[in-house]
Design goal:
The chain is an alpha+beta fold and 256 residues long. The protein has helices at residues 2-57, 59-90, and strands at 102-106, 121-123, 132-134, 136-139, 142-145, 149-161, 175-184, 195-204, 212-224, 229-235, 248-255. It has 2 domains: 2-90, no CATH class; 101-255, Jelly Rolls, CATH 2.60.120. 34% of the residues lie in helices and 31% in strands. The strands form 2 sheets. Strands 2, 4, 5, 7, 8 and 10 form a 6-stranded antiparallel β-sheet that branches. A 5-stranded antiparallel β-sheet has the order 3-1-11-6-9, with no helix packed on it. Strand 4 and strand 5 form a beta hairpin. The model is unreliable at 59-74 (pLDDT under 50).
């Protein structure tokens, strides 16, 4: 019995040695793989740390922006070029037939109105050569429209009197300076009176100052048919200022 226990002890001792030997062999086999894994993890940690550091310093951001800018600029240039081409297409110059009717004429000088009658109303004549008009004709002091529609009509007349330079001595202590805008309807008989569109002016008491000036300006909308005419008349026309900046007449179409 004791011999059997001794042999069991020896057998167990041998098995334990064999087991330890196999354990040492297994550890010896996996040790290089373990070291390699640790080395790779260390390298990844170092790379991650370097990447974070570069982001914090802004280096990578600058590199990304510098590499992305040329693409973005090229894309923007193409968009701007396309927009400019579209704008040029939309801004094609109007043909003459497409232009809106309009006219602006300064007063015709020199002025030679012989009447000094304060009750006399005289039609003003305008300088076609110094003015502009498109699809509106000028004849005998009148603007004649070529298209019917709603127009804005305007006129400005300036009156001045300087006793020392006047060709005629006139009492201007109580003088009326009036401006009228008339509408001649083309279809009405020639003997019919034109329609009065607007009237403006005032009564002046100038006295004997060296220089006296008074201006009347008015404007309004009116519906004009084709070939209708408009013109301006004033009282005391002999006092009209011949400067084109002070006395002028015009019209432009607003809508159909």
């Amino acid at each position: 019995m004791a011999a059997n226990d001794y042999r069991g002890y020896l057998r167990n001792h041998t098995a334990m040695e064999n087991g330890e030997a196999r354990l040492h062999t297994a550890h010896g086999t996996h040790r290089p793989l373990l070291f390699g894994t640790l080395a790779v993890m260390g390298l990844l940690q170092v790379a991650s740390s370097v990447t974070v550091l570069l982001h914090l310093t802004g280096y990578l951001q600058e590199v990304n922006l510098s590499s992305a800018e040329p693409v973005q600029e090229t894309h923007s240039e193409h968009m701007m070029a396309d927009a400019l081409r579209d704008e040029k297409k939309r801004e094609k110059p109007r043909k003459k037939n497409d232009q809106l009717p309009k006219a602006h004429l300064p007063i015709k000088a020199p002025i030679d109105f012989s009447s000094t009658d304060p009750n006399s109303i005289t039609t003003v004549y305008w300088d076609e050569t110094r003015g502009t008009h498109t699809k509106v004709q000028y004849h005998d002091g009148r603007l004649l429209v070529e298209e019917k529609g709603w127009y804005y009509v305007y006129a400005k007349t300036c009156f001045r009197y300087a006793p020392d330079h006047a060709t005629r001595k006139q009492d201007v202590s109580n003088v009326q300076l009036l401006q009228y805008i008339y509408h001649e309807i083309h279809t009405q008989p020639s003997k019919s009176r034109p329609a009065l569109l607007s009237k403006s002016g005032g009564t002046l008491q100038w006295g004997n100052q060296n220089y006296n000036l008074y201006c009347v300006q008015q404007g309004r909308s009116a519906f004009l048919n084709k070939h209708d005419g408009i013109y301006v008349s004033v009282s005391n026309s002999w006092m009209l200022d011949p400067e084109p900046e002070g006395t002028y007449f015009g019209v432009f179409k607003m809508s159909k």
